[in-house]
Amino acid sequence: MTEKKPPFSLNEALLRDRLKDYQEGGLVELRDRLVAAWKKAHPAASGEASAAIGPLMRTEPHVKRRPDDPDEIWINDVYQVTLRRRPDAVFGSHAGMIQLGVSTHDGTARHDWREFQAIKNQLAGPECEAFELYPADSRLLDPSNYYSLWCFPGVRRIKVGHEERRVMDSDVALAPQRKLPPGETSDE
Q1: pLDDT tens digits for 9-54?
Q2: What are 131's strand-pairing partners?
Q3: Strand 57-58 to strand 79-86: parallel, antiparallel, or no bridges (unpaired)?
């Protein structure tokens, strides 16, 4: 029987060399060194704040020709979002499930967590939890730069994730981070 090799090449010496950094000094010093190096390497990005995207506006009602067509279409300055209401086959809640299909107008692979959170908040509610599914390859859908958020308005908390909110601005984040958009506040 042959030994299975990992799907990647692991350079043990390089890994050990990188891990030495974590043994030098405390986490605060490490964070400061990492952020300083990031700012030096990416000066434009380090000064950038998360942009506040425009609010989504619902397009004129459209004719739903097939059952899989969206129920609503929303747009703003960056994104087009299709909204489909479906029964909740995951948790069985009476409020159903909302599928948000997010794509950019220019077709790029833009995937900004803060912007997706704002989209979810506007269309499903700030206390509604949602997730992205990375499916088995046998169910993979990847026809374009289109992302689905699966929202569950009738579920108080999905039993995964952290219990407490923890948002950090760039000056106190644990790793390089953009500044928060105007009006957003850090918990630190």
Answers
A1: 566 777 667 666 666 666 667 767 777 787 788 777 766 666 667 8
A2: 150
A3: unpaired
**Exposure letters 6-24 (e unless 16+ CB within 10 A, then b):** eeeeeeeeeeeeeeeeeee
Q: Which residues contact 150 (CB under 8 A, 6 or more apart)?
A: 90, 97, 98, 99, 130, 131, 132, 133
| C-alpha closest to that of 89 among 123, 146, 39, 133 | 133
Work out the widest C-alpha separation in the chain, in whole angstroms: 63
> What is the C-alpha end-to-end distance of the chain, expressed in Å?
54
pLDDT in tens, 75-95: 999 999 999 999 999 999 999
Contact 122, 72 (CB under 8 A): no
Task: Give the domain ranges of the chain.
Answer: 13-46, 57-152
Rg (CA), the chain: 21
Q: Higher pLDDT residue, 186 or 154?
A: 154
